[in-house]
Amino acid sequence: MEFTAQQIADFIQGKVDGNASVKVSSFSKIEDGQPGTLSFLSNPKYSQYLYDSNASVILVNNTFIPEREVKATLIRVENAYESLAFLLSVVEQAKPKRTGISTQSCIEDSVVICENAFVAAHVYIADGVKIGKNVRIYANCSIEENVIIGDNVTIHAGVSIYKECVIGNDCTIHSGAVIGADGFGFAPTVDGTYNKIPQMGNVILEDCVEIGANCTIDRATLGSTIIRKGVKLDNLVQIAHNCEIGENTVIAAQTGISGSTKIGKRCIIAGQVGIAGHLQIADGTTFAAQAGQANNIKTSGQILMGSPAFAIKNFQRSSIAFKSLPDLQKMVYELNRKILELENKQN
User: Fold this and answer.
1) pLDDT tens digit sequence for 114-156
2) Catalytic residue among 122, 156, 174, 241
3) Is position 174 annotated as part of the catalytic site?
């Protein structure tokens, strides 16, 4: 379908700057813009591409001031990135959804599946599972006993959901994720071996949670490992047993959170962060990439960096000093040599 710049602007409450009748039917990156496509500019680093882009329509922030003439029609909005996300979401939702249950799936008799479901080939669904409306389960998934899945859930290929876990409404779980594997619980014995501690709990994903590819979320020893409403996990994230991740927290790839740690609301955790077990992390905490945290954080809104992690401004100052250590070492050696020379002369 084609839409004019004016139709799009009316839809997202924007203002057209240029030819309001130009039409687009697809999207493109600003640096690879093609005629008939819509692109966007939100990061100033990409401003250089705006002036030569062949995209027909480009979303920009209201505050954007061009340095020279722009070929494309601009649509000015409050937040270009949010407006693009909204348009992409609308397009995605408009695509036809697959329904029906493959004859090559294996579904036990006691399973309850509500209307408009899609179950692909080679899916196994065990006894006692309840599946809500408009759920899509792609090939080679395994859903074990007594799992509950809410409405409008998408489970991509190769996902494993262990017994008695609960998936809320409007969740997305990407390929290879494992929900509810045993937590890492082993008791040391006097002879140096380890006895496995049975993991009797489950995992609960609240509504609007997205789990990236190959994430692992371990079931609780007792009680539940809980991923609160609106949490987004990147690929390759590990959440250990009995953790709780607060509402609208986002966690980037290769981060690991140890057992029984409670992460607050609206936290931002960058890639390769490591957080030790049994900690409390305050709301609104931000961890920069590769940070390591071993203590509780009681003050909300901090930005932390380094391992062990501490306030980012102090880390940056320390980093400058660290880079200067070789020169400082030479200076200390030289001063020490001169002191020794003076002492020898006095003697």
Assistant:
1) 999 999 999 999 999 999 999 999 999 999 999 999 999 999 9
2) 241
3) no
